[in-house]
Design a protein that fits this description.
With 425 residues, the protein is α/β, with parallel strands linked by helices. It has 12 helices and 15 strands. Helix 1 packs across helix 3 and helix 9 packs across helix 10.
Length: 425
Amino acid sequence: MCPAVAAGPTNKGVIAMPVARRINQDDLRNHNLSVVLSSMARSKRPMSRAALAKETGLTKATLSLLSDILLRNEVIRQLKPTSDSSFGRPSTPLAFDSGRWAGVGMQINTDGFGYTVLDLNGTIVDTAWRERTMDDVDPDDVFAQLDELMRPVERNLQRYGYTITGAELALPGLVTNHNTLLVARNLGWRDIDLNRYEVFRRLGADANNEATLAAIAQIPGYASQRPERDWPIDTLDSFVYVSTDVGIGGAYVREGQIVKGDHGFAGEIGHISVNMRGPQCRCGRHGCLELYAGRRAMMVASGIAGERDAARTDLLPRLHAAWRGGETKAVFAVENAVAALASALASTLNVIDTENIVLGGLWSEFGEDLRGNLEQRVQSQILARDSVKVRLMFPPVTDHPAMYGAAVMGLDRLFRDPLSFMTVE
C-alpha cells in the first residue's frame, strides 16, 4: 500500500483533511450575477428572464431577484415587451444599459500610444491614437504623455456619469502578473515597475501583452455585448491569434479563454526559430520568425526602407503596392515571410492541436489570395493534415485590437466581481 500523505498540519498518526472556505450567500449571489452577465453578453439578441433562466440553469425566482439587482444598479434595462407565437404571453427582453459603465484600454506600441473607452453595451465611447516613432524612447517620457492624454478623458467620463470598472494597458513585451514589464525589446525597455507611473496607479490599471489583448478583442461577448453581425469565431471556439507588426506575438485561446501559461508568457510565436543559421534576433536566438515576417524585416528586405525608417507605419501601403505590382524585391520579401509564417504556424498547430488561426496586423491588408495560399501551406505541413482542416482567417477587429481588448478587460472586472460595483439593498 502507498503511505498516507497528510493534507495539512497533523498530530502523529492523524490525517488532516484540507479545510475548504465556506461559500456564503454573497459569494453565491456574486457568482450567479456573473453567470447572468456573461450569458447576456454572449447572446446576439436581448434575452427575457425566462430565456436567461433556461440558458443559465437558474430558477425563475432566482433570475427575477438577480435581474432586479441589475436593473436597480443600471447595469441592464428592460426593452419593450415582445410577443412570441410559441408562448402564451409577451416577454420583456433585457439588455445592457448604456452610458453608465465603461472599461478603459490603453496601449503603448512601437508606432505610438493611445486609448479606447468601451461601453458595456459594446459601443466605443471614445478613442484616440498618437503616432510616434518609438525606437529606444524613454519610458518616463512616454508615460508622461499618456498621462496627459488620459486626464481629460477621465474628467469627461465622470461628467457624463460613467463609472470606470477597470483599466488595462497593452504592451509589446513580457509582463508579469505583478505589473512588471520584464522586457519589450522592440521598445528597448527592460525591468520596469509599471506601478510607479501616476496614470497607471490612478486608474488602478493592470498590464498585459498586446497579442493576448488583441486575441481577447476577437472573442464575441467577452465582457461586453457581442455584435449582432456575423462573426467568424464563436464565443467558445479555440484558436491561435497571431499579431504581426514590427515584432510578432501570439496568443492561444482555448474554448473562449486565454491560455497564458505558468508565468503569463505563452504565445511568443515570433521567437520560434525558422532558420537556425539565420540572423541573430534581439532576443539572442537565430532565425526567429519576426526577422522574416515582421514589419521592420519586410521593409528592409523589400528595399522600401533602411533600418532607421523601417518601423514607419506610413510605408506599409508602399509595400502592398510593390508586392501587387510584381516588384522583385517586394515579391521575394513577401514570399520568404509567407514561407516562414507557414512553418511556424504548422509547428504551433502540431503542438497545441487546434485548426483555427486568426492572422492579425499587417497581413490582413494583403488580401484573400495570400490568405488562401498561406492556409494551404500550413495545411500541407501539419501532421494531421489528412483528418484536420486548417481554417486561417483575418480578424474581425482590426483597428488597434489590443487597445480594444484592453478596454474589454477593464469591463471584465465588472463581470468577475459584480457585487463590488453594486448595492444590493
